[in-house]
């Protein structure tokens, strides 16, 4: 993988040559650039393009750094359903496990090895998401008189959920870090697509019928979503 020096930092970058006329640059994770170019753009030209956008890349990288500092998961605590739970590590000759106890989240590990946070909590969040979102989807689908065929838990980089014409709903497990009213807003949003497969005025009327404060919940997700979407990405 090639590297490029921008300011005082070294970035790895991936160039994808595609049948396109424009150039797209994205910072996928801190220190990793993805640049999509037309087929005829050489690696040498790509270096020049990236240097031309050095200020933008630096600002984006600094934004990622701030997100990591504000992250709702770190070595001391996690956020689950909008509440903070402090991590208590316990070592025992048992299989690794995670359990909530009052305002603590107890992590049991074998021997003296405490696994990386992503190895501990991503599977746990996904498991909780499957259970909780299935329950809430069933609850709201019943109220809205719609039928959901299947629920899947995913890890999209920019989407919180999606709904197909086959009545399948996908959720991003990261929504489990949001407060409960925000989680319900997402469920209602996706279930509403089973009545209106668009974002028309009629669609938002359906959402408002079941979530009168949906504008506040939607705004919360816009303001805080980036932080949640980038947790444990590195």
UniProtKB/TrEMBL annotation:
Residues 21-224 form the YgjP-like metallopeptidase domain. InterPro entries: UTP_pyrophosphatase-like (IPR053136), YgjP-like_metallopeptidase (IPR002725). It holds the Pfam family YgjP-like. CDD domains: M48_yhfN_like. Signal peptide: none annotated. PANTHER family: UNCHARACTERIZED PROTEIN YGJP, UTP PYROPHOSPHATASE. This is YgjP-like metallopeptidase domain-containing protein. The lineage of its organism: Bacteria, Bacillati, Bacillota, Negativicutes, Selenomonadales.
